[in-house]
Amino acid sequence: MKLVIAIIQPHRLEQVKKELYNVEVNLITVSEVLGHGRQKGITEVYRGVKETGNLLRKIRLEIAVNDNFLDCTVKAIVKGAKTGATGDGKIFVLDLQECIRIRTEETGSLAIG
Asked: Which among 28, 66, 74, 103 has the fewest CB atoms less than 10 Å away?
């Protein structure tokens, strides 16, 4: 089991979700976050408003997947998020020690689905 964490541009969220749904990855958590990478100081336009400064709006996706879904999940995120511009984001893949579905108390791969 793996936990995939992706930081992407807010305007690419719908495209990333579409690509994830195409590979049958439906269980995602989405958070609005602030941060910056190497592009600090670069002005970005978000919904018609210029943003400058140290912290830029980003979207954080968290997706728990079974090992056989890891590659297609990462490829879907890249396909949906990539623009070729600075600030497209990052993907982190972590080992997931345990997952427990609260409703049924299933554990491990069964809990992820």
From this structure: 103
